[in-house]
Design goal:
heterodimer, A: about 450 residues, Aspartate Aminotransferase, domain 1, Aspartate Aminotransferase, domain 2, 2 domains, four-stranded antiparallel beta sheet, about 15% strand, globular, B: alpha/beta, seven-stranded mixed beta sheet, 15 helices, about 10% strand
Chain lengths: ~450, ~500
């Protein structure tokens, strides 16, 4: 009962409306027919201390892994959140504001989101990034819907080998307009079949090809340029899924000729939170046809009527509150605050930090890879280059392996299919933590 | 009524600090050890700031922004209520914030139990039987709900593709229908702002998937014929979808399930006080009646004896809508809000929301030129709509001008030009978390602006002047030739 006006305010307003009793007032204005008088057994914690104690007790029933012992990714991973990021993002002016419909009074959020769009645009090497989608998965779904709006072929190409959760979300998004999903084998598994399939299907007509760079196994396909040429030869749309931490050191989507780039932003300074809230990153190339068909909010730099620099929502005629069923998407609420959190994180670590951490993960992943191959029990899956995620075949009982490693306090990877282990490094890993992991793996194997 | 100034730091852009776009040979040398030349990125351009510059930059930006923490934020249908700070601390507990979503259920029993509890409370409060917490926002909840309806008829082998949506609906409703690959059948509201059964009878057919309704609707009026409408839709074999954006009006008093709805979404970032963060994150859980359980997105949380587990095995599931389980840390905050209030507390929340809205409605409509829509003095629900058409026609002052002039007084403006059926609309939702003094000030501000419209017109049309920037040229901002969607734009790309 603690988040209400003082009693005097309530009583004065009631008196103005000719009432002395709040319950009587409500029963008079709500339709009697539906006032069922239901009563629920929801306890009330009158005391803030009781409330936090209740939740603290529950939080302690969950197992928290040391971040350097976690070897899974797929959009969510441990990342150190610097103190200033937590402090700034907690400021009530950001935290408790709404979508900046009155731009003159919401310049703070608008400028920060414009800066987020701009920083991401630099990293992606694409000129336009929207001010966020829900998560990486829905960003892929929306990218394909966007491509379908433009090309209207009713079919799309996606990799057969994909993180199952992502694939499920994509299939859900495509089930509405009934877009046919055609799958191709990832080139890291079978290069010949890959090219054969995509060329055949592109010739038949597909609205888009969604290509993961790196793929689920962590590999970067060097002939991505040939893929791009082929996609554009058939006037299809090239969608690239990226890993944010690879952007500083590996050729980014814009340089690879992507029309749309999508990815998950959580690894740039957000909590894991058992998978949410996350941050869907969505960028497009500088083509008005693409930009007009983009989903989501876009902030632009502009000027006031008297000529000063200012920021505002732009191209709103794409959006549902104006265009209704003709909108490019139904998205309204997005993930603005997590976008700003990642912006503050990136401003803090800067280019130096991006390089340092990206390179550290590259080095450690390569070391871990070669050491694991030495142990025996693990075999190479692909010769292709990787950054911080790689995969190994194993004839071991991988479920048993992961279980045993978990009892040693590790999330030791992700089992994909029946015999592939995918390992993913994060920014907490150090040479020491890798070596400890390796000695535990040796014992378990 | 005093005017109040917002901070005006003229804060420069992040890109106006220092920029580094140079290649770093040391970095490139290391990269060449591990990666082939053709994959390596040579460089990129990035802002360079010291730690204290980062703090100052973003603190200044925050001071150029308005939030609920600063005062009334009466955007209609947005339910901008106070966000309890304790919920932030709770969501930040390591045992929630540091959990990886691929952890085994046995390792997160505490969390699953809480989420199960939240689902149960939401079910009880809305009269539904099962909930998915997965949708990340209300609109995603709508898409989930419409896909459930669509799949339901596919499984039944019925070819239906029309969803009825009133002209007062939120824009997300028709947009969600379209995204689900179905057709929108828009129906008009009557002069009292509500849907009449005869209108529904005219459009309903064996093609009808169902109807999406917000009740009370966006005019702040209760759909009195909901019972009849529900019967017509159900008799035609269709389903009823409840858009929960306006649940704050009836929370604890009336349940969507008791009004005949089969599917309901709730906006945790509205009714259940989680912060809106300048546009998100939100959370839009969807509840269904038991006969639709098997259509929910997977997984849902089930209880086996004392153990909570993620159930991935739903026969007709529409699939997943989120990478993992939705915005879990938002869900935790909402549960904290529910538990802090208790059932009686929640009832009082909606009661005071109704009270504040009606107080403000009645007093604003006493002012000259402020016309209620629909044009009657019947009590409103948690929000209401007024038309400023008279003052526009007579003095050339638009709803937009009035909104901008309101900002000069250090408070936020209502939603403007929505619902689109109302000329010069202002849609106002004060919520339960404003004091009577704030409401009285808001009324006084309106009164002053109406006086200015007559006597000092320039002051209104040249507003705002007290905000961190003056009135923005929105047309310039969106024109292809002059728009600038990123810092990079125009540097060879645009």
């Amino acid at each position: 009962m603690s988040y209400l006006p003082i009693d005097k305010d309530i009583n004065d307003a009631l008196a103005f409306l000719g009432y002395s009793d709040l319950k009587k007032f409500v029963e008079d204005i709500l339709p009697k027919k539906y006032l069922s008088g239901f009563k629920l057994d929801i306890p009330s914690f009158q005391d803030e201390y009781e409330l936090i104690k209740f939740f603290s007790d529950y939080s302690r029933k969950n197992k928290v892994y040391p971040p350097e012992n976690v070897y899974v990714g797929f959009g969510v991973e441990p990342v150190y959140i610097p103190s200033i990021v937590k402090h700034i993002i907690s400021r009530g002016e950001f935290l408790t504001s709404y979508t900046p419909y009155q731009s003159e009074m919401s310049q703070g959020i608008l400028q920060a989101l414009f800066e987020y769009q701009s920083v991401m645009a630099e990293l992606l090497e694409l000129p336009v990034v929207n001010s966020s989608m829900y998560d990486g998965a829905s960003a892929i779904g929306e990218a394909i819907l966007m491509a379908e709006r433009i090309n209207r072929k009713g079919r799309v190409l996606i990799p057969r080998e994909m993180f199952p959760n992502y694939k499920s979300v994509v299939e859900t998004y495509l089930s509405g307009p009934k877009i046919e999903v055609v799958e191709y084998t990832s080139p890291s598994i079978d290069e010949d079949s890959f090219f054969e399939t995509i060329e055949k299907e592109l010739r038949r007509g597909v609205s888009a090809l969604y290509f993961e760079f790196p793929d689920i196994y962590g590999y970067f396909y060097r002939k991505v340029g040939e893929v791009e040429t082929l996609v554009h030869k058939y006037n299809s749309i090239f969608i690239i899924g990226f890993d944010v931490w690879s952007l500083p050191i590996i050729k980014p989507p814009g340089a690879l000729g992507a029309d749309i780039a999508v990815g998950e932003g959580q690894p740039f300074g957000l909590s894991q939170g058992f998978g949410g809230p996350l941050l869907g990153i969505f960028g497009v190339a500088g083509d008005m046809r693409l930009i007009r068909n983009m989903p989501g909010r876009l902030i632009g730099e502009t000027k006031t009527l008297d000529g000063h620099r200012a920021y505002t929502l732009i191209l709103q005629t794409r959006e549902q509150h104006i265009r209704r069923e003709k909108a490019t998407s139904n998205i309204c609420t997005n993930e603005a605050l997590t976008a700003i959190q990642s912006l503050i994180y990136l401003s803090y670590i800067g280019k130096k930090g991006l390089y340092k951490l990206s390179i550290e993960m590259l080095r450690l992943a390569n070391r871990l890879y070669s050491e694991l191959l030495k142990i025996g029990g693990f075999n190479r899956l692909s010769q292709m280059p990787f950054h911080r995620r790689f995969s190994l075949y194993s004839e071991m009982d991988l479920n048993g392996f992961l279980k045993e490693m978990s009892s040693r306090n590790y999330i030791a990877g992700y089992k994909y299919g029946k015999d592939v282990l995918i390992l993913h490094l994060n920014t907490f890993h150090t040479l020491e933590s890798i070596n400890n992991f390796l000695s535990d793996v040796r014992e378990v194997v | 009524m005093p005017e109040r100034r917002q901070a005006r730091w003229l804060e420069k852009s992040l890109f106006d600090y220092h920029l580094n776009d140079e290649e770093d040979n040391e970095v490139l040398n290391i990269l060449h050890e591990y990666l082939p030349e053709d994959l390596i990125r040579k460089s990129f351009c990035f802002p360079v700031l010291s730690e204290f510059e980062v703090v100052r930059h973003f603190t200044r930006l925050s001071q150029q922004n308005y939030g609920v923490d600063l005062g009334i934020y009466p955007l209609g249908s947005c339910t901008m209520k106070y966000n309890p700070r304790i919920n932030e601390e709770i969501a930040a507990l390591k045992g929630f914030a540091d959990l990886h979503p691929l952890q085994d259920c046995d390792e997160v029993q505490g969390l699953l139990e809480l989420l199960y509890l939240l689902s149960k409370y939401l079910s009880e409060l809305t009269g539904m039987d099962y909930f998915t917490l997965q949708p990340a926002a209300g609109a995603q909840g709508e898409l989930t709900g419409v896909l459930i309806m669509k799949k339901y008829f596919e499984v039944k082998g019925e070819e239906r593709d029309e969803v009825i949506v009133p002209d007062t609906a939120h824009g997300t409703n028709p947009a969600s229908v379209k995204m689900a690959g179905l057709k929108v059948v828009e129906v008009p509201s009557n002069k009292d702002g509500i849907i009449e059964p005869r209108i529904i009878e005219e459009v309903v057919s064996d093609k009808t998937v169902g109807i999406m309704l917000t009740n009370p609707n966006t005019l702040g009026v209760f759909e009195d014929y909901i019972g009849e409408v529900a019967d017509i839709i159900h008799d035609a074999g269709g389903l009823l979808y409840y858009d929960g954006a306006n649940l704050n009006a009836i929370l604890g008093w009336i349940r969507p399930g008791d009004m005949g709805f089969d599917i309901t979404h709730v906006n945790l970032h509205k009714t259940f006080s989680t912060p809106h963060g300048g546009g998100g994150p939100g959370s839009g859980p969807v509840g269904v009646k038991a006969f639709l359980k098997d259509f929910l997105p997977v997984p849902i949380i089930d209880k086996d004896g004392d153990r909570y587990r993620l159930n991935w095995d739903l026969k007709y599931s529409i699939g997943k809508v989120h990478s993992f389980y939705g915005n879990v840390l938002v869900q935790i905050r909402a549960l904290a809000y529910i538990l802090r209030n208790g059932f009686e507390g929640l009832k009082k929340v909606s009661a005071v929301a109704l009270l504040n809205s009606n107080y403000l409605f009645k007093r604003l409509c006493e002012l000259e030129y402020v016309r209620p829509y629909p044009d009657n003095s019947k009590p409103r629900m948690h929000e209401f709509v007024v038309s400023m058409k008279e003052v526009r026609d007579k003095y050339g002052i638009s709803a937009r001008d009035i909104a901008k002039r309101i900002l000069d007084h250090g408070v936020y403006a209502p939603t403007t030009y929505f619902p689109i059926i109302v000329d010069e609309a202002l849609m106002i939702e004060p919520t339960e978390t404003v004091s009577k003094e704030e409401l009285d000030e808001y009324i006084q501000i309106f009164k002053n602006i109406m006086d200015e419209a007559v006597n000092d017109r320039d002051k209104v049309i040249n507003s705002p002047r007290n905000t961190s920037v003056g009135r923005i040229d929105d047309a310039y901002a969106s024109r292809p030739r002059t728009m600038k969607p990123s810092y990079k734009w125009g540097a060879g790309d645009g």
